[in-house]
């Protein structure tokens, strides 16, 4: 293990602490970590450790960056012929996105090897690459717990989860040391990737004011982020609240999607859902706890129903490699993605111990819902990220604009 004592975070000014304060505080908030009267400057509580050289699926400046090509979209409207929407990556984006991919490895092991296979590349291109319209995309490989490990009774063993997390934390630290240079950053993850980022937030970023001040937002899809009932903060995270406005930063977006209603045996959207891999005793305790799973609709953070902006991968991007998709089921367009404006709506719902994002097609508009080969209890888990991908990328742009405007307004003149 290589331990690094110098960090670009040390160059941060008290300005970023002020940004953090303004992002998290709401009228009436009195939490000492988010109080607008706080003047404590950022500091690093411990050395930043990089365990091993990071293997990147996407990293700006690398040869043949997987997040930089083949990402045009076929637009299929309700009437008329399809059109092509060209993909244009931002030339000098002012922020970064750090993305961790979902459970995809089918290696016959508890944890995947530390290498980028075509499967990892396909899912990163399908989910993360389009964020390059707004940010520099960093997507590390990690020794994730595999599909085999996940399907064991009780889920992956603790040491399998710990190994996966150690890789993600090492890659994050590598990014901080060698690429961040004080730039604002968005955390983006799906499924296991979101689980790892949630743990990174809880164990490293939230306790460290200098790292927390860099955070524009965290998009944690399919990870079941828990909060107390009738609250927007607490539970899994102590400081970072749920996002409620599209111009808010320093907050979290999280949801698990089902078509219409989530069944009583839902794998996701429940504080004691089986997706967490808890043993029976813990599951019973959580079922009786005062926690709920956070649902934030990226198309309508303030609540209510709204039209989704899907960007669904085609065979050009995903082939037959994406999880949960039957062979040959991806659209055959010649572009990397296809979108269906005005065809899907979503709203957050609650029933019993379940909280979920209910996705429904517009009546009479046909049904371009992705084909999945998973049971009803899994819902839209393998499609939910892309069903809201346009909304997520738009949200990142708006949050980053608000963050950077706050930074500019707080910069001393002269």
Automatic annotation (TrEMBL):
The lineage of its organism: Bacteria, Bacillati, Actinomycetota, Actinomycetes, Frankiales. Keywords: Signal. Residues 1-25 form the signal peptide. This is DUF3089 domain-containing protein. The keyword Zinc does not apply. Pfam families: DUF3089. InterPro entries: AB_hydrolase_fold (IPR029058), DUF3089 (IPR021440).
């Amino acid at each position: 293990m290589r331990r690094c004592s110098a960090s670009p975070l040390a160059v941060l000014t008290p300005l970023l602490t002020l940004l953090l304060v303004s992002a998290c505080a709401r009228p009436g908030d009195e939490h000492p970590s988010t109080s607008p009267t706080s003047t404590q400057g950022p500091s690093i509580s411990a050395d930043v450790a990089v365990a091993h050289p990071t293997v990147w699926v996407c990293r700006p400046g690398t040869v043949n960056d997987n997040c930089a090509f083949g990402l045009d979209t076929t637009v299929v409207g309700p009437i008329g012929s399809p059109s092509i929407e060209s993909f244009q990556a931002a030339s000098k984006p002012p922020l970064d996105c750090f993305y961790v991919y979902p459970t995809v490895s089918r290696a016959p092991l508890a944890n995947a090897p530390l290498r980028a296979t075509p499967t990892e590349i396909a899912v990163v291109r399908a989910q993360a690459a389009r964020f390059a319209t707004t940010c520099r995309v960093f997507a590390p490989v990690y020794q994730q717990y595999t599909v085999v490990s996940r399907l064991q009774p009780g889920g992956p063993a603790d040491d399998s989860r710990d190994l996966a997390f150690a890789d993600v934390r090492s890659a994050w630290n590598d990014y901080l040391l060698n690429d961040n240079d004080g730039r604002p950053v968005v955390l983006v993850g799906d499924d296991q990737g979101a689980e790892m980022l949630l743990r990174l937030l809880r164990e490293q970023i939230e306790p460290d004011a200098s790292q927390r001040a860099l955070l524009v937002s965290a998009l944690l899809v399919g990870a079941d982020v828990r909060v107390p009932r009738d609250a927007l903060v607490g539970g899994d995270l102590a400081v970072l609240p749920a996002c409620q406005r599209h111009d808010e930063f320093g907050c979290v977006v999280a949801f698990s999607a089902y078509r219409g209603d989530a069944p009583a045996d839902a794998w996701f959207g429940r504080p004691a859902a089986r997706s967490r891999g808890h043993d029976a005793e813990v599951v019973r305790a959580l079922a009786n706890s005062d926690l709920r799973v956070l649902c934030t609709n990226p198309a309508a953070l303030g609540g209510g129903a709204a039209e989704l902006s899907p960007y669904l991968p085609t065979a050009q991007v995903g082939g037959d490699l994406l999880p949960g998709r039957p062979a040959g089921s991806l659209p055959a367009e010649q572009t990397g993605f296809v979108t269906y404006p005005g065809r899907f709506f979503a709203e957050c719902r609650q029933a019993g111990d379940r909280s979920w994002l209910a996705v429904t097609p517009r009546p009479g508009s046909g049904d371009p819902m992705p084909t999945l080969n998973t049971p009803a209890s899994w819902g839209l888990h393998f499609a939910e990220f892309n069903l809201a991908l346009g909304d997520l990328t738009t949200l990142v742009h708006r949050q980053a604009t608000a963050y950077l405007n706050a930074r500019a307004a707080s910069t001393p003149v002269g």
